[in-house]
Hints:
single chain; about 220 residues; alpha+beta; L-fuculose-1-phosphate Aldolase; 9-stranded mixed sheet; 6 helices; disordered N terminus; metal-binding; L-fuculose-phosphate aldolase; Aldolase_class_II_sugar_metab
Amino acid sequence: MTRTRNPADPLLTLRHAVAEASRTLARDGLVTRTQGNVSARQDQLVAITPGGASLGELRAGQVTIVDLDGKPVAGRLEPSSELPLHLALYRDHEIGAVVHTHSPAATAVACVVEGELPCIHYEMALLGGSVRVAPYRRFGSAELAEVASAALRDRRAALLANHGAIAVGATLEEAAATARMLEWLCQVFLLASAAGSPRALDAQALAEVRSEFARRGYVS
Length: 220
């Protein structure tokens, strides 16, 4: 359903932000065609990319608005099939945006690594530490939403086994930046694995990194 809006309409602003983030992620190669989805929350409403739309060409008018129960508020297209996943993350975590990708390196790692991607680089401290790999569950299912939410406990990113990756943040910018970092980390892991056995940083090293990041104001 649709309604008349003016340029100051906060829902229109939110829809524009989701559409722009989708196009940017497509240009960066993190989402392709219809593979992936993006959402942002404002109070009790969520703007999410529609199912079946080309993310690289997405426009604000195609973005759907729903409430936290998934009830349609605005938009003429069906929301992404991963709406249950996005809504679960907003209910379970204090976040403002979700980026779900099928980016090549992250998806490849999600197809081979079990349990977690170890801390092979100190910048993983910005994500909360090692990146958990949620067990495989069918796309669009409540079961996938459940295991993904658990994998994101105290983390900003997770991998979904044989599926892709999920990144969250207080804003769309933060969530997108986290998705880019995760893709880079997975590329590094794949290259390191081809050369040998990647070394993981120990708990003391990560604690020192977190302390230094906090001193420099990189994290709160």
